[in-house]
Amino acid sequence: MLASYTILYADDEEQTRENIGEILSLFCKKVYLAKDGKEALQIFQNNTIDIAIFDIEMPYFNGLEVCEQIREFNQKIPLVIATAYTDTEYFLKAVELNLAAYILKPVTAIDLKNALKKCVANLKNNKNEKIYFSDIVYYDTIKRALFVNEKDVILRRSEITFLEYLLKRVNEIVSYQEFENNIWEEGMSSAAIRSLVRDIRKHLPPETIINVARLGYKLKLYK
């Protein structure tokens, strides 16, 4: 059920984190462990994660705050919260964040199994969330990864951000100024953008990212 998935589990209680991590590692492709909300976000942003489980009480950012930040740019990934709280406020927040499951602590093996079943069901429901650039090249919006011949292409964070921005504006011209001002808070020069586009184009079919002279870039999808 989980052999092809990568899971992120975050909990500030070391023993709980290690115990759950060992259980997950028996069934999953890969398991990342985080000791607090800050580390969890760093791992999520730098790796391809399929399912994420967070304790609600953690340093820096609690589980719900981590989920909120993830939902700002990823609405599909199954997220699970583990908590000792039963307050209505927490349940309502969980609904608002479209969580796959809400587990009460202490987490049992059965609780974990049931939550993961829901996550896998969500992933299967979203299995068509693939945007094709050719018969063999596509972008998986769930895994946030580019695939060529079913092999995951390693893209830098900036390349993923750029490509996803274009995917929101398919067949529209996105100006250089818009890229410079709106994607990266610190800004990015025109020369840096051109270099980034050259690197992305190496993995895409010709004429996928079109340079419209003096205006910007336009993305064309496979028909």
TrEMBL record:
Residues in the DNA-binding region annotation: 128-221
GO terms for MF: phosphorelay response regulator activity; transcription cis-regulatory region binding
Keywords for this protein: DNA-binding, Phosphoprotein, Transcription, Transcription regulation, Two-component regulatory system
Record domain OmpR/PhoB-type: where: 128-221
The organism's place on the tree of life at top rank: Bacteria
One Pfam entry name: Trans_reg_C
Residue positions, PTM 4-aspartylphosphate: 55
One GO term (biological process): regulation of DNA-templated transcription
Gene3D superfamilies: 3.40.50.2300, Winged helix-like DNA-binding domain superfamily/Winged helix DNA-binding domain
GO CC list: cytosol; protein-DNA complex
Residue ranges of domain Response regulatory in the record: 6-120
Protein name stated in the entry: Two-component response regulator
